[in-house]
Amino acid sequence: MLERFWEQQPAVLNTLLSKKIRRGEAMASLTEDDMTLIPEVIKLMSPLKVATTLLSEEKNHTISMISPIQTKLQRQFQPDESDHMVISQMKERFRLDFDGRYTYLQDLLHYASALDPRFKDLSFLDDNETKDIIFMKITAEVVKMDGQAGDGDTLIEDQAAETEGDRSPHSEEEETDDVLPMKKTAFGPDVW
Questions:
Q1: Could you name the domain of life of the organism this protein comes from (predicted)?
Q2: Would 80 be classed as within a structural domain?
Q3: Among 35, 72, 163, 184, which lies 20 to 30 A Cα-Cα from 53?
């Protein structure tokens, strides 16, 4: 909205100064300070516009994008001595708001980013130790899942070996009474 106002500023100001519009009534107008502040606010808000657009697209998966975007926005809202007082206050409010978001999901968001080819190097994280811990946890989960899948495979092989020699109808009935092995999934049973 401010971008559109800034683009149309001469026309809007001329219209507000027109005697036909004012009809002798005093209208609120923007001060010189307000006019110098508008481009700074637009510049400050543009990363939020990009983040909102990226996260609201339906064609892209977004969970892996949350952590990199959040980190980028937190860096964008770091205080700068050259900022106008209003801009500094806005940055502080944004930073306070972002600090409390997704704290309970940080590990999941980092895992999703690490598994996404676009962010697999986790370049948005500054701490190499944190990156290593994330990759070690993912590796441990894969090994755990592989171990669970391996147990299921040996169970099926053992059942097949037991019934292989006996092809009587009686043995087929016994097979249907047994509990079928669990289907392999991408997530282990303890994830949900």
A1: Eukaryota
A2: yes
A3: 35
